[in-house]
Automatic annotation (TrEMBL), chain A:
The gene is pqqE_2. This is PqqA peptide cyclase. It holds the Pfam family SPASM. Catalyzes the cross-linking of a glutamate residue and a tyrosine residue in the PqqA protein as part of the biosynthesis of pyrroloquinoline quinone (PQQ). Binds 1 [4Fe-4S] cluster. The cluster is coordinated with 3 cysteines and an exchangeable S-adenosyl-L-methionine. It comes from Pseudonocardia adelaidensis.
Amino acid sequence: MDRPFGLLAELTYACPLHCAYCSNPLNLADYRDELTTQEWLRVLAEARELGVLQLHLSGGEPLQRRDLVDIVRRAAELDMYTNLVTSALGLSTRRAEELRDAGLDHVQISIQADERELSDRVAGTPSFDRKITAARLVKELGWPLTLNAVLHRDTIDRIPGIIDLARELGADRLELANTQYYGWGLLNRDRLLPSRAQLDRAEAAVRAAREQAGDMEIFYIIPDYYSRYPKPCMGGWAHHQLTVAPNGDVLPCPTAQALPLPRASVRERPLEWIWDESPLFQRFRGTDWMPDPCRGCERREIDFGGCRCQAFQLTGDAARTDPVCHLSPDHEIVAAAVRAANDPAQPRELALTPRPHPRSVALGDAAR
Amino acid sequence: MPSTRPIPTVDGADRPVLARGVRLSFDAARNRQVLLSPETASVLNATGAAILDLCDGERTVDEILSELRQRYHQVPEDEVRRFLGRLLARRCLVVRSG
């Protein structure tokens, strides 16, 4: 069995932003019993011993955790590569300097669009100006800067402007990532999924930008609904990566909490046991679990049957082929969503359901 | 639409150095040197680690090759150049030219 390389530490689901494409779970209120500082420090030590080399500090908004600097410092002491995945809200000069002194390696800042009005509307809160200030601060403090823009129907046509903004800010990397439809994103899918014409324009814009001279690296990730084959989700179930949710649940992928599988928590078991032996991590490891048509497919070691969470969300059975695959018996579910996204008669005025702050939702009714 | 571009060729006079935000580390769990960058961790073999150890932004590619020749019986120059080219393409290395 391989050892994991990366740990996605979802420190909290608290977030000042309300993006309707958020992949956090709908039942945000169930995660308010967050791991303590001491518990996180123990998790880091166990993860390092297990072979984890990269720590992605995410959420929610990781800067909402007051102990973030302590967590980064411990990770640096353990010689992990630390990556802060942030909205940048809360990244003051003082906080940024503390994080740098604690050994933080890299900062990835999300941007919602290339201009204030649209960005603030997508984020559901005034945030654009603070993000720009924080991006400049990251460069001033000598970190490499990655900007990440999640694209959807309302923002995908802004790619040229987003690329110009990223260049102007001196970003080293720009990730243009179409929304993946999980959590709040799935709830809002029919309003967010772009049309094929929009995708064609997006690809042309990315190609043109890459042909220009410049050192910025541009990653472009298409919405998998438009792919012929599914994405190799997480590089295979429980193969390279693991996630620890704010409450200590350990997951092979950040959206797997919805699957009807036995839980595994760092509050109850060592990380090594969870990785090696827990039923949750064993369930879809390798290829033995696969149904047809994956079982006999020559791509089974390339895409691993796609995403288990997507199969569950769309068909109710996590052990089916990802319906994104054109060979899946359930592909019509995805095809219908794509047809609707390209149907000019389809109403587009549906309101988006914003992702709330977990503290603002009553226990149990977070989903609607 | 992967970020593919041709693998850059390295010139003998280039002085390669790890890009900002990229570092080498020893991984006790795997007992190997690893190259860490924002999105990837690569486990290195002994030769790869020795090459990157020499990429200090001062030594030229020619100087790196000659140092490797002192240490190893056979140094396949093309392979070393390809290795450096791949890491340049992945932005793990940058070069100072001339």
